[in-house]
């Protein structure tokens, strides 16, 4: 498993504002989108392309196109939905699947409540979106759903990771597939309630309110 931490002053600045408890929900949403677009630039560095012959108004030339099948973007509801717009702005031809998972805040186990993915993901480059990788339970379950459908190339874009969660995902994935995590930060640790420290709180609640 590869882990890439985006080292860019704009990412660091936006993340700092995002973390602040005083940042209101509309600004939090806007910054999440902006951060995803910056991270997606890094995350799509290995996207499959092919050469194409084209004609400009001046001369024939050879250019580059994304290959088919189209990339598959999968936001993990709820909080991952806040990342979708920023991702599809960069990858407008992507198809979008959905996974709904919520962490039981007592046991910290991920529970699935929605799954809308194509049956066959073999040969597809898949991009999972979730701002928070805490214990790693949610991401392991999401990666498993993609593997079950034949995906072998999965890039996960997160805003924050806990070192404990990264270890868990790495152990679960092993050398089964080509998995990359692109993140804005690896934070210090998890606290006793499974929250990332210093983190940013509950990403879903900050995006959409407490339900
Ligand atoms: O790594 P884990 O310990 O599994 O925790 C991370 C998960 O927790 C958050 O979602 P949450 O369960 O709060 O659902 P929400 O997006 O609906 O708020 C977050 O968006 C991840 O999906
Ligand atoms: O810090 C955390 C951990 C899990 N989920 C969140 O939204 N935040
Ligand atoms: Mg939440």
Automatic annotation (TrEMBL):
GO terms under biological process: UMP salvage; uracil salvage
- What Enzyme Commission number(s) does the record list for this chain? 2.4.2.9
Q: For this protein, what reaction is catalysed? A: UMP + diphosphate = 5-phospho-alpha-D-ribose 1-diphosphate + uracil
Name of the top EC class for this enzyme: transferase
Show the Pfam families listed in the entry.
Answer: UPRTase
Q: By what means is the activity of this protein regulated?
A: Allosterically activated by GTP.
Record's Gene Ontology CC terms?
cytoplasm
Cofactor(s) needed, names only, are:
Mg(2+)
Q: In which pathway does it act?
A: Pyrimidine metabolism; UMP biosynthesis via salvage pathway; UMP from uracil: step 1/1
Q: Which InterPro entries match?
A: PRTase-like, PRTase_dom, Upp_B, UPRT, UPRTase/APRTase
The cross-references to CDD domains, in alphabetical order and at most eight, read: PRTases_typeI
Q: Which GO terms describe its molecular function?
A: GTP binding; magnesium ion binding; uracil phosphoribosyltransferase activity
Instruction: Indicate which residues the UniProt annotation says bind uracil.
Output: 196, 201-203
What does the note under cofactor report? Answer: Binds 1 Mg(2+) ion per subunit. The magnesium is bound as Mg-PRPP.
Domain annotation Phosphoribosyltransferase: ranges: 5-209
Instruction: Please name the Gene3D superfamilies in this protein's record.
Output: 3.40.50.2020
Give the binding site residues for 5-phospho-alpha-D-ribose 1-diphosphate: 78, 103, 130-138, 202
Q: Keywords for this entry? A: Allosteric enzyme, Glycosyltransferase, GTP-binding, Magnesium, Nucleotide-binding, Transferase
Main function: Catalyzes the conversion of uracil and 5-phospho-alpha-D-ribose 1-diphosphate (PRPP) to UMP and diphosphate.
Entries under HAMAP family matching the protein: Upp_B
Q: Which family does it belong to?
A: Belongs to the UPRTase family.
- Its protein name is Uracil phosphoribosyltransferase
């Amino acid at each position: 498993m590869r882990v890439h931490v985006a080292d860019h002053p704009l990412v660091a600045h936006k993340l700092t504002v995002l973390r602040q408890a005083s940042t209101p929900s509309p600004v939090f949403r806007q910054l999440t989108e902006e951060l995803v677009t910056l991270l997606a630039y890094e995350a799509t560095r290995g996207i499959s392309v092919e050469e194409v012959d084209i004609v400009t108004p001046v001369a024939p030339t050879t250019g580059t196109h994304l290959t088919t099948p189209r990339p598959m973007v999968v936001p993990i509801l709820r909080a991952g939905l806040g990342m979708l717009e920023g991702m599809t702005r960069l990858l407008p031809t992507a198809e979008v699947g959905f996974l709904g998972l919520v962490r039981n805040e007592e046991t910290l186990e991920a529970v699935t409540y929605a799954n809308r993915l194509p049956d066959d993901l073999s040969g597809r480059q898949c991009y999972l979106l979730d701002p928070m990788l805490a214990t790693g339970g949610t991401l392991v379950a999401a990666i498993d759903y993609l593997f079950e459908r034949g995906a072998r190339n999965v890039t996960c874009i997160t805003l924050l990771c806990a070192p404990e969660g990264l270890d868990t995902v790495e152990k679960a994935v092993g050398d089964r597939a080509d998995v990359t995590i692109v993140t804005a930060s690896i934070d210090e640790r998890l606290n006793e309630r499974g929250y990332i420290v210093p983190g940013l709180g509950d990403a879903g609640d900050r995006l959409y309110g407490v339900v």
